[in-house]
Amino acid sequence: MVHPIFQPLVPLSILPSYACPLYILPPNNGFHPIFPNPSQSLKLVKPQCCAVLPSNQNNNFLLNDWSQLLQFSIGSQDYMLAKTIHGYLIKSGCEGDLFVDNNLVNLYSKFSNMNDAQSIFDEMPVKSTVTWTTLMKGYLKNGDVEYVLCIARDMCMVDEKFNEHTCSVVLQACRSPEDRFFGEQVHAFVVKSGLQENVVVATSLVSMYCRSGHFCCAERVFGGITVKDAQCINYMILEYGKAGLGDKAFQIFVDMLQSGLKPSNYTFTNLISSCDFSGGLYVGKQLHGLAVNYGFMCETSVRNAMITMYGQHGMVEEAERVFAELEDRSLISWSALLSVFVKNGHANKAFEFFLNMIQIGVSLDSGCFSTVLDGCSEWNNLKFGAQIHGLTVKLGHVSDVNSGTALVDLYAKCGSLKSARAIFDRLRNKTIASFNAILVGYLNSKVRDDEEDPMVFFSKLRFSGVKPDGVTFSRLFCLSANQACFVTGKSLHAYAIKAGLEDDNAVGNAVITMYAKCGTVQDAYQIFSGMNRDCVTWNAIISAYALHGEGNNVLLLFEEMKEQGTTLAKGGTKDLKISLDKHSNRRNRNIMNDALIIFDCQESSPFGL
């Protein structure tokens, strides 16, 4: 039986056998009825289209159905059929019609053939907003965001109007902090045009500001939406989770329920994934109960999120129970529980679980390998890690950036810098994580030649185009501190400021330690004074003064820390006691003894001081 929309094509078949692709049954050879042989189908160009197509009057009945045929070709990913219909439109003299050309631009964009889409666009005598937007969608789908922004600029130059779909596409193309200025211009147009209440546009604005790192702007846009739909709320929950603001995500969820909107499994997945904040376990358990009530426990994605959530809060047995009850286990499910074992220090369980995955035939990916290799790194188990290395080579994952970076980290942390560097050099795509992993090897290595000098290595990083992050600078500052190299440390500090990382707490804490070990505790205190302080920051500055034997300042800082309601990091009191005892002298021995007593009190108190 022939599908109704294909019925007009049957008479065009030169041989009856060529009509078989028109039937609901799968085609035998993939030929299309307009072409007498496959070579004409595969090498379709305009002259061929015109020559091959029959010119009888009966073709006119296709004029009413060609758009449906194009949509069918897109849905079935049948590129040959798409080219066939294009050929028919050329033969029929329909080219130049705005509706036809818009459909053709959309057609080739959906098949990722942007050269043909662009050619049709360039030859169009008349273009509409739909035309421009369709072309931009195609480039966005193919990841060519620069082309999207260029087309948007061209639209402005020819005074073509933006609609809500145009704004949404352009905002989705603003994927980096550098594109924020362009996104703000679109935002201004949205407000001027009264489109700020459009949920699709508003969601795109929220997404753009989140990607550019301006979360407060995203919150303002979200708060200004009068009527929010489930998709918009789900996206904001996702972004709050990424930003570590799970409590705010939960509040949005409460508002969602109060407004009468029904949550989806996607809502629960995002919410449960954001329960990594203080008190998140209590919220996570509530969400677990709600997921049962709403009937979402049969969704694999929800259970996977629960496994991760329980693992984040140290409830390994509960994570195992959720996994055991999961009937349709995906690779993500296996990887989630494996990660729980690794992050909670259950080495034996992790290794046994990984071996079980291999035995039952789970298709391993680079994520699984990187997880188990991270465990080998943490437990300094080079023997098992080397076996995993062999397996990654056998399965072809060794050159993958995730597995490769995990291998670099393994060998670097286990003291085998030569092996780490060999794997690093073979990585096709080096990321900042790869560079940071190799820096661990330099930190642990005592003997280096000129080629392995970390600063030479850092220079290569800069020239390769990879941007250093806070972890990079933190490790480099540790190297400078260990070598007491003030000039190098100060140069790195200047470069970190230039890179916009002066507000990064991890970088600031490392800078304090670096200046202290280089003998300039005044510079360390100056950095401390301008920082947002956490317990690690206080630990760093108190250790700095203890290092220089300044007991009075140690006590003053400790009292100031108590007044602000901060306690030292776990294990910090022990480190400080060692430092105070080591660097005290006769003149300040009594002050140091007082400090040691105070730290002993903090260590023994279950609630701090």
Defining traits:
mainly alpha; 609 residues; 34 helices; disordered C terminus
**SSE class:** mainly alpha
Per DSSP E runs of 2 or more residues, the count of β-strands stands at 0
Measured distance between first and last alpha carbons: 82 Å
The major pleated sheet works out as: none
* pLDDT < 50 stretches: 9-58, 605-609
- From the alpha-carbon coordinates, what is the Rg to the nearest angstrom? 31 Å
What best-fitting shape do the alpha-carbon axes yield?
A: globular
Count every helix, treating DSSP H or I runs of 4 or more residues as helices: 34
What share of the residues lie within helices? 55-70%
Q: DSSP strand (E) fraction? A: under 5%
The whole-number mean of residue pLDDT values reads 83
Family: Belongs to the PPR family. PCMP-E subfamily.
Protein name: Pentatricopeptide repeat-containing protein
GO molecular function: RNA binding
Keywords: Repeat
Task: Explain this structure.
One of its GO terms (molecular function) is RNA binding. InterPro entries: PPR_At4g14850-like_plant, PPR_rpt, TPR-like_helical_dom_sf. One of its GO terms (biological process) is RNA modification. Keywords: Repeat. With 609 residues, the chain is mostly helical. It has a domain at 1-94. Helix content is 66%, strand content 0%. It is built from 34 helices and no strands.
